[in-house]
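Is this the right way to post structure tokens for a design question? Let me know if I should format differently. Anyway, here goes:
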């Protein structure tokens, strides 16, 4: 006859064994699902971060070209264009330029145009020197404006610094000869500043990609301004992207044609036909990025792929084997299984009294694991006994803390403005989405109370043009500090360029009038102390309060705040304030 003690121990062991099997299975399944989702999110975030980094570089090129373009258009006198006979009554090129009677006017205009180019040239040279990766910059004048003045071309190809070189003779090549004249005719055909996909520039003997802007004034086509970056400058950024052990990034056109791939040949599209990858690209055609991974087979290996469209129109794709992506989940599963076996062995040797004591921390650990799997990283475990469960708990807590640091670091890089340190436009999109969600679920009369304040830093362009971008950055940083100091309990977002937005909620919302007066006082105090133009602070502002009767979402509030800000800007310029 079995004793009661044996029966209790047998029942306890069976119960523990059953519990470990059930809970272990649920935990393993849950962890595998969540780890697969987290791994896919990590790969997608890697794609987004890499795309943002490359876009930041490309945007720097765009800003440099656009800056010179605006300067070039502003510097050219419409009066001189008309006086030279370049602009006819209908705003088109005058046929009179081809007549002998207008030769004297043409000669005078050519002299003016030569002086004009001489003014543009050093400005462009200075900007190009401060723009990373530029190998060539140029301003090519429309040949119909002047047969004498053609513009200028500077290149670093074969030189340590920019050297002036001869211009391409456009009349020697056809308009569809991309390798010789695509840089000139493509932006004209598109009618807007454009990126030209990587091509072999036969004029300079270098593979490159170009950003070129066509210039117009008073309906007259003036010419094109552009910068070229070497193909290797762009590709090296992609080649340096590290994804797990054997993952990599590559660059393709929207039709799937390969621009760069570490294995496949440039110009081919063999990455697509006959695979799940082709179907995946077909399903997401027309969008700039995919939120779910494209899963495909490559040489018998399952891989996942995410892509994101760059500002140049090309697609950056990142891919990695699923076995590497899911490796951390497999390790965690094996670790959990080993721990479960250890718990079973320990619990099988203790009494029913100790079983209750040991069950409680296990329950807390399982709940914490589920919280972690559900995305809640604010997990705290206070079990401090010096035993196996204590080791497991501390290891799990360390894992959670390391994961929180890692996620926090990723969020900081993804959602912080690099220059000012405040939140960026991506962070604002998340905050706006949360506000919209709260608006949708709110009952009538219980809608959220919030307001947006839009700020625009006046005179930034003048400071940049007059004193340099370094002083312009100081001006922006001082303006940002003023906003942050005035609204210390509210999130501040840099929306791009010289615009900032503050979200007012809770106590800051209630004290908005006081805070706005404090902002004006602080502005006046700074301007009284300022001794240099870039130390002055001239900021237009506009505030809008969410009104459930007028606003359907946060974007409506932001637009009203933006409109108020522009009214304030107009009043400031007109001298009424």
């Amino acid at each position: 006859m079995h004793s009661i003690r044996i029966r209790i121990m047998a029942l306890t062991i069976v119960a523990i064994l059953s519990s470990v099997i059930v809970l272990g299975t649920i935990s393993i399944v849950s962890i595998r699902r969540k780890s697969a989702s987290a791994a896919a999110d990590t790969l997608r975030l890697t794609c987004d971060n890499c795309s943002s980094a490359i876009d930041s570089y490309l945007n720097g090129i765009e800003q440099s070209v656009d800056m010179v373009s605006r300067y070039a258009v502003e510097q050219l006198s419409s009066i001189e264009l008309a006086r030279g006979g370049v602009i006819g009554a209908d705003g088109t090129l005058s046929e009179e330029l081809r007549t002998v009677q207008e030769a004297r006017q043409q000669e005078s205009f050519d002299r003016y145009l030569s002086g004009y180019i001489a003014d543009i040239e050093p400005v462009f040279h200075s900007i190009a020197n401060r723009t990373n990766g530029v190998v060539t910059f140029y301003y090519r004048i429309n040949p119909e404006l002047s047969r004498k003045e053609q513009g200028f071309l500077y290149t670093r190809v074969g030189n340590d610094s920019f050297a002036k070189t001869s211009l391409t003779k456009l009349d020697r090549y056809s308009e569809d000869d991309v390798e010789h004249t695509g840089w000139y005719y493509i932006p004209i055909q598109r009618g807007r500043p454009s990126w030209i996909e990587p091509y072999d520039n036969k004029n300079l003997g270098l593979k490159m990609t170009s950003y070129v802007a066509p210039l117009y004034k008073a309906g007259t086509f003036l010419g094109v301004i552009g910068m070229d970056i070497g193909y290797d400058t762009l590709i090296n950024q992609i080649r340096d992207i590290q994804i797990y052990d054997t993952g990599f990034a590559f660059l393709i056109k929207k039709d799937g044609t390969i621009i760069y791939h570490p294995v496949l040949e440039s110009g081919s599209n063999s990455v697509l036909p006959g695979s799940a990858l082709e179907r995946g690209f077909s399903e997401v055609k027309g969008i700039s990025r995919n939120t779910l991974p494209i899963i495909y087979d490559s040489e018998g290996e399952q891989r996942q792929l995410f892509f994101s469209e760059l500002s140049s129109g090309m697609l950056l794709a990142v891919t990695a084997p699923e076995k590497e992506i899911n490796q951390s989940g497999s390790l965690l599963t094996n670790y959990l299984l080993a721990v479960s076996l250890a718990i079973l062995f320990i619990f099988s040797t203790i009494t029913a009294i100790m079983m209750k004591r040991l069950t409680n921390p296990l329950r807390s650990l399982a709940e914490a694991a589920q919280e972690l799997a559900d995305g809640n990283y604010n997990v705290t475990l206070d079990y401090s006994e010096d035993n196996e469960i204590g080791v497991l708990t501390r290891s799990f807590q360390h894992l959670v803390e390391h994961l929180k640091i890692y996620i926090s670091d990723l969020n900081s890089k993804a959602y912080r403005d690099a220059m000012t340190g405040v939140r960026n436009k991506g962070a604002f999109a998340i905050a706006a989405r949360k506000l919209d969600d709260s608006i949708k679920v709110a009952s009538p009369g219980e809608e959220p109370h919030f307001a947006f304040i839009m700020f625009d830093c006046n005179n930034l362009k003048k400071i940049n043009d007059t004193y340099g971008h370094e002083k312009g950055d100081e001006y922006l940083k001082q303006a940002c500090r003023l906003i942050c100091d005035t609204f210390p309990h509210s999130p501040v977002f840099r929306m791009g360029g010289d615009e900032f937005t503050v979200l007012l909620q809770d106590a800051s919302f209630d004290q908005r009038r006081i805070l706005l007066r404090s902002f004006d006082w602080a502005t006046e105090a700074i301007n009284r102390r300022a001794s240099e133009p870039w130390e002055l602070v001239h900021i237009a502002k506009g505030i809008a309060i969410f009104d459930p009767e007028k606003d359907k979402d946060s974007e409506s509030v932001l637009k009203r705040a933006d409109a108020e800000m522009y009214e304030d800007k107009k009043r400031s310029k007109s001298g009424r304030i």
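Format looks fine. Someone answered above. Worth noting: The longest strand covers residues 206-217. The longest helix spans residues 4-75.
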